[in-house]
Structure formats: structure tokens, C-alpha cells
Amino acid sequence: MRNNTIGSLIWLRLMRFTNQSNQMSNEFLKRFDLTTAQFDVLMQIRIYQPLTQMELAEKVTVTQGGISRMLSRLEKEGYIVRKQDWKTKTINLSAKTEAILDQVMPEQLAFQSSFFDDVLNEEEQQILYTLMTRVHKHSQKKELPPK
Amino acid sequence: MRNNTIGSLIWLRLMRFTNQSNQMSNEFLKRFDLTTAQFDVLMQIRIYQPLTQMELAEKVTVTQGGISRMLSRLEKEGYIVRKQDWKTKTINLSAKTEAILDQVMPEQLAFQSSFFDDVLNEEEQQILYTLMTRVHKHSQKKELPPK
DNA sequence: TTTTGTAACTTGACTAGTCAAATGATAATG
DNA sequence: CATTATCATTTGACTAGTCAAGTTACAAAA
């Protein structure tokens, strides 16, 4: 009954870990009045602005609908500015958000890193990164099995 | 501006990968009329039944409120049975669900494994599992930094 | 036996997301 | 110029989750 493959064990570990660390990250970011999801999209906008909703959706792997809802929350709170530009909407950070991110980013990156720094040395982190990169890249070109 | 640590790069990879593979898993499970989240809790119930809602919440790392909502959906669909038993509610799978899981489980485990089998050999998977186990276990006893 | 506690579960208001149908903005054609 | 097409975004109905306040089920003390 317990015919778990090594792959399925890895899968479960990854799911539980990301779930858990996501919750902890939310708690950490509470002091800046941000959620992990919001921080994620704000960072992507900062790096790639100006960009369209489609491009952004792609970067954070959510659907069109998902990004639309997220952005209207962020706009309502004044974090971002959207303007109709030809058929598409162009997204930019508001000035206040640039300032907020300058402060939050180093803290959040340090927080994320601490999950690994505390238990893995430099070399082990490099190995983990390499393995996960291969797995992730492969998953992106994976096809659903038929039937 | 791109002062990404190796840890923050790993973090992002893990988030994107789990997010993506979760979506693919949802699509895969559609043929059985299940979601990934539902499959996860049904599997935990199968392994540990009978159990209480608190115990289950702990196993799948969601809150009391979250498990309550999930279970009432599952109960409405006839996948599980809850009965009041002293102060707590005891959860069991319905007979039909045991049968469904017998069929779904091997397929889903194979699907999960395929993410890793396709690109990592046995030894690499073992390494990945070991590293992630250390990272995960550590995160469970981690404290939020003060301030 | 009414009051008082307490542990387990539920619920209201919310974020975050999905899918698929509807709407908006612009272009191209009859 | 009105009609049709096309692509981007929005929206309705839903799953899945959070937090914190509210119930429920039982126990023990007054």
C-alpha cells in the first residue's frame, strides 16, 4: 500500500515546504503590509516595467483572469498605475512603491535565503539550485500524458 | 539592483515549479473529477483514518477553518463521512472513495514521479530528496525573526 | 441543575486563484 | 461608414485558503 516512489516523496516535500514557507513569508511581510503574492508581482513589475498584463501573467504563472484581479487590488491600494495603451494596458509602479520595494527587497531576499543558508553550505545550495532548475525547465515543456 | 542570493534563486524556482506542477496535476486529475488538493487530503485520510479534523489539518498544513471548508465540500460530494464522536468529529472515507483511490493513486504517483524521472537519475533524485528534507525539517522549527 | 469553562468545529469577510463567457479597443473590409 | 474580426482585459461562479469571532458539545464546579 505504501508504494511511494522517490519522485512522489520529493513532490510531497516540495509541496509542503513551499506551502509552509509561503505562510511564513506572509507573516514576515505583514510588517510591510504586503503579501507574498503581492511582493512577487511588484518585483516582476519593477524589473520589467513598463509591461502588459499578458506579459506579467506569464512571468508569475497565473492566468489572465488571475492577474486582472490581482492588479485591480494593487491599483486600488495605489501600488501601481495602469493606462490603456493601444489594445493593451501598460503597468507601472507608483513612486511610493519604488521606495517601499527598496526597503523591503533586501529584507525579503534575506528572509528567503535563510531557509537554505541555515542548513546547506554554498556547494549544497548550488547543487540544489542546479537540480531544481533542470526539473523546472523540463516541466515547462512537458506534455500531459494522453488517454 | 540584481543582488539575488543563491537562496533567493532557489526559493523562486521552488515556488514557480510547485505552482506549475500543481496546475498540471489539476489538469491530470480532471479525468477522475478530483483536484490536487482533494487528492492530497483523501490520501491522508486513507492512511490515517479514522482521525479528527485537527489531526488532518496538521498533516496537510492548513488551518482549522481551511480543513473545515474542504471537508464540507468533500462530504457534500459523498467522498467522506464525518460523525460527531465526543467533542471531536471523526473522519472516514466512504466505500466508493476507497475504490476510486485504488485506481487513481498509482496513476497520480507515477505522474508526480515523472517530473523527476524524466531528467534526474536515481542518485540525483536521492540527493534532491535529502537536501529538501533537511530544508523542510529546518523550516518547521524556524522562528520568525523579531522586530 | 444552572453557571462556567474549554476544546473542536464553523462561519463571515477577505485574498488568490481557475475557467469560460462577456466586454472593450482597435483594425480591416464590404 | 457600418460590420466583422481579433486580441486584451474583465467578470461571474467557483475552489482553496487565511484570520478571528462565533457556535457546539461536553465536563466540572457552585
The residue ranges of chain A in which pLDDT falls below 50 over 5 or more consecutive positions are: none
Oligomer: homodimer
Overall pLDDT of chain A: 93
Spatial order of the strands forming the largest sheet of chain A: 1-3-2
State the end-to-end distance of chain A. 25 Å
Structural class designation of chain A: mainly alpha
What does this structure look like?
The structure is a homodimer of 147-residue chains. Chain A is mostly helical and 147 residues long. Helices cover 67% and strands 10% of the residues of chain A. Chain A has six helices and three strands; from the N terminus they run H-H-E-H-H-E-E-H-H. Chain A has helices at residues 6-29, 36-48, 53-59, 64-76, 95-117, 122-140, and strands at residues 51-52, 80-85, 88-93. Chain A has a three-stranded antiparallel beta sheet. In chain A, helix 1 packs across helix 5 (95-117), helix 2 packs across helix 5 (95-117) and helix 3 (53-59) crosses helix 4. Chain A is globular. Chain A starts with 5 loop residues before the first helix and ends in a 7-residue tail after the last helix. Chains A and B meet through helix 1, helix 5 and helix 6 of A and helix 1, helix 5 and helix 6 of B.
